[in-house]
Amino acid sequence: MVVVVGTRGAVRLQTADETHTARVILVAPNVVRSIEARDVGLYSIQLDAASALGQSLFKNVLRGKRVVDVSDRADGSVMRIAEAAQNQTQECEAMRAGSQRMLDALFVQAARSQSTDARVDAVACWLRTHLPPRTEPARLAGLCGLSESRLAHLFAQATGSAMREYLLWTKMRKAAEMFAAGSTLTDIAHSTGFADLAHLTRTFKRYFDLTPSFLSNPGLVRVQVSRELVGGGKPPRSRIANKPPAHDDDGSVADAIDRPPKPFVSR
User: Fold this and answer.
1) Who contacts 236 (Cβ-Cβ below 8 Å, separation ≥6)?
2) Handedness of CA 208, 214, 220, 221 (dihedral sign)
């Protein structure tokens, strides 16, 4: 799930069957899209779909839609926060606080939501903590006393994401964090359960349309990861902030992208 903000004008977001041109857009989990933000600037916050905020947005704002234009919710403070992150280097805490203020302004009621299903929380927490090679449905069902089919339905109904998709998103979020910290592909593959480095690179690019080498270049991209989640709950979110050309396009991941060399594509 991602919130996309055009810092200096509307961005164009395209999925397989719809196109949106707007200043602020909310996208459901696991929606493949391309984003064009040339000469506009892009700030985005990728949210954990299993968090209290993510579940609230899926239920009360998306309401079954894949993409929603929420520009009418944005006030001047939202744009100022995005512009500030793009125009100057910020520490993690400053970006976290700015993203929280942005989400509070855009989704007043959802940001206060604390209502989540404890069984969904337990499964999401286990997947984030262990990052298993696969979801292990029988083990997860045993954690919360449900049948495998009932758990699969409950998780998707609450988050908009299948458990296997959520696990892969979590791995890519961790990969983004490690890339930005200077870890090698081998270390990242080991930590995220990928035996094949090429597979890891392809999967990462499928989610973000950014190569690992691009993301790990501090002259082009800034990555900040928040351990404290907006709206309550424990899952982390990440932010990726692309530096504007004056200084030379997760988490989990908020991105500020100034002039991507091609449309920004992610899941």
Assistant:
1) 48, 128, 173, 225, 226, 227, 228, 229, 251, 252
2) positive
Report pTM: 0.81
Question: 32 is written with which tokens?
Answer: 């493949």
Dig out the tokens for 223 from the structure.
């990555």
Identify how many contiguous H helices and E strands the chain contains and give both numbers.
Answer: 11, 11
List, in order of start, the domains of the chain with CATH numbers. 2-266 (1.10.10.60)
Q: Out of 67-76, 134-143, 205-214, pick the least confident.
A: 205-214
Say how far apart CA 46 and CA 51 lie, in whole Å: 12
- What does the block give as tokens for 159? 């988050």
Question: Is the separation of the CB atoms in 128 and 238 below 8 Å?
Answer: no
Closest CA to 177 of 252, 85, 227: 252
Q: Which amino acid is at 259?
A: R
Helix (H, G, I), strand (E, B) or coil at 239: strand
Write down the pLDDT at residue 216: 66
Distant-in-sequence contacts of 143-151, Cβ < 8 A, 24+ apart = 143/119, 144/118, 144/119, 145/119, 146/119, 151/119, 151/123
